[in-house]
Structures are given as structure tokens and as C-alpha cells.
Amino acid sequence: MAAASTPARSSAHLSQPVRVVLRVRPFLSSEAASATAPCVSLLGCHPGGGVTVQLKDQHTSRSEQYKLDAFFRQEDSVSQIFDQEVRAVIPSIFEGINATVFAYGATGSGKTYTMQGTEDFPGLIPLAASTILALCTGTWCSVEISYYEVYMERCYDLLEPKAKEIMALDDKDGNMQLKGLSWVPVRSMEEFQELYSIGVQRRKVAHTGLNDVSSRSHAVLSLRVSSTDVVKGKLNLIDLAGSEDNKRTLNEGIRLQESSKINQSLFALSNVISALNKNEHRIPYRQSKLTRLLRDSLGGGCRTVMIACLNPAEYQESANTVSLAARSCHIENFTSSSKQETPKLKIDMEAKLRAWLESKGKTKSIQRMDGLFSPIASKTPLSVSHMKQPTSSRIPCRVKAMDQDGGKIKKILFDPVVHVPTENIPREHRQTEVNTPKKVVLPSVTPCNEKHEASLRKALSPISSNMVPVEQQIPDNGNCPVLLEPQTPIEKRNIVEETPGATPLERFNALGSNLKEALVQQYLDLLNVANKEELQQLKGIGARRAEYILELREDSPKPFKTLEDLGNIGLSSKQIRDILKKTATGIFK
Ligand SMILES: Nc1ncnc2c1ncn2[C@@H]1O[C@H](COP(=O)(O)OP(=O)(O)O)[C@@H](O)[C@H]1O
Ligand SMILES: [Mg+2]
């Protein structure tokens, strides 16, 4: 059965900055015994583009719905994903338009399988390399590759390992470049496979000797096309590090640090994609090394495909992945729960806050989140984080990563068939006319049947009044909101002037409120202008936070407009309250 999606790379598809698609892998033999149905399924596809998927927890019958661009089922092959999502971006590279495809998801969800593939089923990387090389045949175009990984915010060359990390420096256009990264020419699939296999092997044992480093680093393979020595464009194919829920995996020590960095950079990536899809003026590239490195290939006319990979046996993990993917998607999103009307606001903000705190390694704060959310939690007993799950679903059913043997992939894809019609290459790059290539037949798109449409109509019917579309809940800057106590209502603020008949007590209270507001404003102003030394003298702002504040200011001159913006520097609502209380108390000392 064909995958459900919008028509493959329609013109709308190409004009969209980032496509966000889902892929659920088949059950592994080790999971088959306990598996019933996958935790995610397609509900329907929209005539105007996009699909609605449902996530369902077998144990609690909790369910949520999300809208995304396309859905690839367990039986859909990687070559279908390639045909529908990746093939069409390749000709643009020859026109100088960069593109990025990345696989996102938890460890064991099928990212490496999707990007790298196996001997018998090549992944997107060899499929793309083969297509690009085929397009170069008979033209003046040449291809070079680079392959590096980002581990703990440091970069390592996988093609020519150097003793140290490779330095990342900003060029004059503000794009980050890796100094000394090797770019190796490849002329055939044999050459490509040779190099790529070596890089894959190195990734497994790179620099720490830990076994499972491969799933804890982002691996970026880039294919760069040049014509008569002038670089045209490049395609980045990225196997992202597995996202992790520290609360569930009980990570400690180095594992916790690694996963904090991973979650932080994945969250930063999601912020960038979300900002691009919302056409925002400010794209927060500076939030992580990876987004800084990809700046020239994300946004600004570049094509991007995010493939969110799901393990069919892991509901909670999949829900986290889809929630992050959906907030990156351009489609206005919503969820609905079949069990109760838990506002999406809470689920999404909680997920965001959790991701942010985790990225800062604030496990204590995470544990305290239950307290932060308690007013809502008590009313919504089935909300994601407060729901008691049966033991079986709480124990992480980790699937050992595939750990592809680099040598095995060599055999794949030497198929001389030209996968993309040469007429897609701009004429100036063609050396001579080649034989008419085989025409590409793209898999047909699943028609939306009546049942799907009916359930879709149901899904799209007005959501109960306490459910607000997710998009409205996310601050413009895409950063994690801090949950503060409700702010002093505006009406109260100027009660002294506005209510001449106010009682003395009301006037006194209003004064207190005005003082509080003035204090907050002064504090925010100070964060917006103070230098590093001054910042460090403030309570709660250490050296690292001060540096981060200066970085935020580079992106936006006044990053702190409200107290909630302090969430961007990892302060919890309690910390903010404490800081202000201490500052206020200090006045009377
Ligand atoms: N489409 C698929 N068909 C068959 N097996 C798959 C598929 N996708 C993933 N797998 C298997 O699932 C396991 C986990 O996949 P892997 O790609 O290693 O996950 P990740 O890279 O996300 O940690 C591996 O054993 C892999 O072979
Ligand atoms: Mg992997």
C-alpha cells in the first residue's frame, strides 16, 4: 500500500520551507510477541495536503491526534520515502539551492535504518548519492562528500579522523564553517560506498570508545555538487542523535550530560523549523551548534524534510516525537483526546518545558514540575505526565540499535538506472545529451476513502472550548514558556488614578502592585543592557547564563520583554520569584 501524503513534491510541496513527515517502523521479531497494533495510525488525509494521525496508548486508551505533511506506514519502504519526499529536491541542488533531510526520533525508532539502510534495502543516503551521481553523468558537474558528527556540541571528521575536534568558525556571511573538514571527490557509487562505509565504522568507535556513541551523536553526510569548480549546492543527510526522556531512562552522569546536549540541540532544531514554517522574521539558529552549522541549508529558499521516526511499540516516546514534529509543522495543529478534554496547551507546554529543562540538565526542576502544573493536573488526571502507566509500559522497551556493519552496505545500489530525468538538470550543466533515461514512476498517493474522510471531518470538528490550537500557545520566539502565577490583572494596575473612589487599602495595594511592576521592568531592562560582569553580579545569573544572555542579545537586541522570557535562560518560575523576592527584600536592608 502506498504511503499517505500530499501529492509527491507538488509545487506547494516545493514552496514549503520544511516538510514534516512521520514514519513508523515495523515491529521487530523481539517485539512481535507482545505487539498488538502500532501505537500510531493514519486517520485521514486532507484534500489540500497533509494527514491526520492518531496516537493511541494500548494500556490506558489515551489517544491524541496530530496533523502533519505525510505518513509512512510500517509496510512502506525507504525507497517510497525517497521517491515521495527526497527525489524532487535533488535537481534544485544543481541550481545552487541547498537541501537538508534529517531523521528524528528516539533511539531504536529506525533513524539509521531510514538514512543508512541495509545491504538489501538502501537508505536515503545511498539512494540520494546514486541519484546525484547519475545526474552528473554526461555533465560538467562533480560531487564531493563530507561526513562529520556532532557529539556533545563538538564536531569530528568521520572521513579523515583528526586527533582533535574540528573547529567551527563563522564566515563573513555569518555561516558557520568547519575548518579543515575534508571534502572528498567521488565519481562512482563504488567510491562513495567505500568512503561512506569507513565513516560509518568510525562513527561507531569514534573518540570515546563507548559502544553506543552512534546513537548519541548527530551524523551529517553532505553531498556537494560543483560545476567547473564552482560549488553549486549541497544536500545534507542527517541521522540525528536519539531523543531521550531522562525521566524515564533515569540517566546519570555522562549519559545525562550527553542526553541534555542532545535534547537541547533537537529542541533548538525544532525551534528553527517551526520559525521557518511560520515565516518568522527571526530564526533562532544560534541556539545550538547543529543549527548554526546548518544555517546555510535551512530556510532562505532551501528545501528541508524532517522525517520523524516512530517505534510502534512505544506510545509515550512516539507521542513526544510527534508532538515535537507537529510543532515544527506548518500545518495548524491540534490534538484531541478520546478520553477527556485535557487541554493541548498543558501537554504541549509541559513537553516543551520538560525538553528545555532536560536540555539544561535540570532534573530537579523536572521533578518539581508536577508541583508547577498541579492546579491543572488535579483536574486532568489522565494528562500525559501524571498518568500512572502499567509497569509494562513504563519500562523502556529499548531496541538495540541496528549498528550497521559499514562493510555490508557496499554492495548496494550500483543500479545504473538513472533515477531522475536528465531534463531536470539545468541545460547549462549538461555536457552532451544522454540517452533518454527511464521515466520515473512515482508511487501513487493513497486516495482518502470515505471512512477516512468521515473520521477526518470528525477530527476537524470544533474542538471543545478549553482546547486552544497549539500554535497560539507557543510564544513567537518559539522558546519554552515559563509557567508563572497569573500576572497582576491590568485593571488593578492603575487603580490609584483610574478609581478615584478607591479605599485607602485599595490604593495601598495598587501602590504595591506598581512597585512590583517597576521592579520587574528594571530587572528586565538590566538583563537587556548590562555587560557580562554586571550580569554576573545579579542573583541567579552565573558566568554561563551571562554568556548565554549575551548570545541571545546578538539575535535580538532586547530579548527580555516579560518575565516569561526568563525561561529562555533556563530559570524556573520559582527561581524567578526567589530572585525578585531577594531583590525586593534587599531594598529594605
Ligand atoms: N523499515 C524497517 N524494516 C525493518 N527493520 C527496521 C526498519 N526500521 C528499523 N528497523 C530495525 O529497527 C531497529 C532500530 O532501528 P535503528 O535504525 O537502528 O534505530 P535508531 O537509529 O533510531 O536508533 C533495527 O534493528 C533496525 O534494523
Ligand atoms: Mg541509529
Automatic annotation (TrEMBL):
Keyword annotations from UniProtKB, A to Z: ATP-binding, Microtubule, Motor protein, Nucleotide-binding
Transmembrane segments: none
Pfam family of the protein (one): Kinesin
Ranges for domain Kinesin motor: 17-331
SMART domains per UniProt: KISc
Keyword NADP among record annotations: no
Superkingdom assignment: Eukaryota
Binding of ATP, residues: 105-112
Entry similarity comment: Belongs to the TRAFAC class myosin-kinesin ATPase superfamily. Kinesin family. KIN-10 subfamily.
Protein name: Kinesin-like protein
Record lineage: Eukaryota, Viridiplantae, Streptophyta, Embryophyta, Tracheophyta
Gene giving rise to this polypeptide: LOC103635760
